[in-house]
Specification:
The chain is about 65% helix and about 0% strand. The chain has about 180 residues and is mostly helical. The protein folds into two domains: about 70 residues; about 100 residues, no CATH class. α1 crosses α4, α6 packs across α7 and α6 crosses α10. The two termini are about 25 Å apart.
């Protein structure tokens, strides 16, 4: 899993709170002993900051990390049925085909990786929301892929058409990758 930035982590927590509600989200954190105080924070940003510190952005073994990861997966999986899960899994395999054994981006496959990530994003965004899809990709990404995602976020946003990529779109992806 990639290391989330503080802003990405805040966006993730905000998305969870919008989905569940602050009271229910806070109650689940308390039930799992993920928080040290029962006092509810004033807003989602304050809670996100507290959870970020406790879990070190989901890198530290802490109850907060596990609760956030489980609640996130429950939220995403509630939108994805079995048929879509198979599609998403096959798209993830296309992304993995562009990585080395050490899970780093193969330099010669950056264009294919951008296309595969675009397709993966579209599959998840079609069932949830674009920001949720981006955060889901970051949650599952290796450090190398997460850096690639951050560098090419605007190119991925430009690939938002649900239609399969045409040769023209592939050329646009190549131009974006080559300009880096």
């Amino acid at each position: 899993m990639a290391q989330l930035t503080a802003q990405e982590f805040t966006d993730l927590i905000t998305t969870l709170i919008e989905h569940m509600g602050m009271a229910q989200f806070h109650a689940k954190l308390l039930k799992a002993n993920a928080l040290v105080s029962r006092k509810r924070p004033k807003n989602s940003q304050a809670l996100a900051h507290q959870l970020y510190q406790l879990s070190a952005g989901l890198r530290r073994d802490h109850a907060a990390r596990y609760v956030v990861e489980v609640l996130w997966q429950e939220m995403v999986s509630s939108h994805i049925d079995e048929e879509h899960a198979k599609t998403v899994e096959s798209l993830a395999e296309q992304v993995n085909a562009c990585l080395t054994e050490r899970l780093e981006v193969v330099p010669d496959k950056k264009t294919q990786l951008l296309s595969a990530l675009g397709a993966y994003h579209q599959a998840v965004a079609g069932l949830t929301a674009h920001e949720t899809a981006h955060l889901e990709m970051l949650m599952r990404a290796t450090t190398s892929v997460a850096e690639f995602l951050r560098e090419h976020k605007s190119a991925l946003a430009a690939m938002e058409s649900a239609a399969p990529q045409t040769q023209e779109q592939e050329k646009q992806a190549e131009a974006v990758v080559e300009s880096d």
